[in-house]
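Researcher: Go.
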Amino acid sequence: MKEILKVTGLNVNYGAIHAIHDVSLTVKEGEIVSLIGANGAGKTTILHTITGLKKAASGSVLFDGAELLTIEPYKIVSMGMAHVPEGRHVFAQMTVTENLEMGAFSRKDKEGVRQDMERVLERFPRLRERSRQLAGTLSGGEQQMLAVGRALMSHPRILLLDEPSMGLSPLLVKEIFATIETVNREGVTILLVEQNAKMALSIASRAYVLETGSVVMEGEGKVLLQDDNVRKAYLGA
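Model: Structure:
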C-alpha cells in the first residue's frame, strides 16, 4: 500500500504555547488510522493543520506527494481530502439536501454528484426522510450523519473525522463506527481522531497515541488495544 498522507516533523504554536511537537505520522491508502489521546493532547490541532485551517510553524504535510502547507484550504478539498469537524458544523439554516449539495461545491460532474447523493441517502435513510428539513432542527446523531454525508459528497480519497462519536448515545456511536468501516471498505482512506479509544482502536489498522502534543506510542490498533499502558490511560482498565 502506498502512503497517501505523510506528516513529518510538524510543529504548531498558539502564540507562545508550543502545542504540537515534531509530530510525524503516515496514512497508507485504504487504511483506517486512529489518533487517540486525552482532551487537549493536540489531536484536533493536527487535523486543522493538515487541512490548512491552522498554520504550522514548521514541518511537512504531503498528500499524495503534494505539500499541503502551502495550499489554500478550499483547494485541498478538490484534491480529494474531506474533513468532518468536531461539533459537526452543519449549515443550520439550510435543508438536509442543501447541506449535501454544499459538500459537492467543487465538483463539475453532475451525474456523479447525483449518484453520490443517492448513495449517501441510501447509507443514511433518516437523511432521506428529513431531506427538506432544516439541518439545525435535526438531532445530534442525525447532524453527525449529515456532516459525514456532506463530506462524502466531495468524493474524497481520504476522510478526516474529528470526534464523530461526541455527544451521541451508545447505540448511535455503534452506528457511526459501522458507517466509518463501510465507507473504508468502499475505498475511502480514513484518519480518525476520537476520544472513545476502545472504539477507535478496534476498527483501526494502525493508531498513534498523543500526549501533550507529542506522539508517545504507535502501532497496530488491536495491539495497542491490549497494551497495559493504553488500557490504564484510556480504557479505564
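Model: The beta strands are 3-14, 17-28, 32-37, 58-63, 66-67, 81-84, 158-162, 189-193, 206-211, 214-220.
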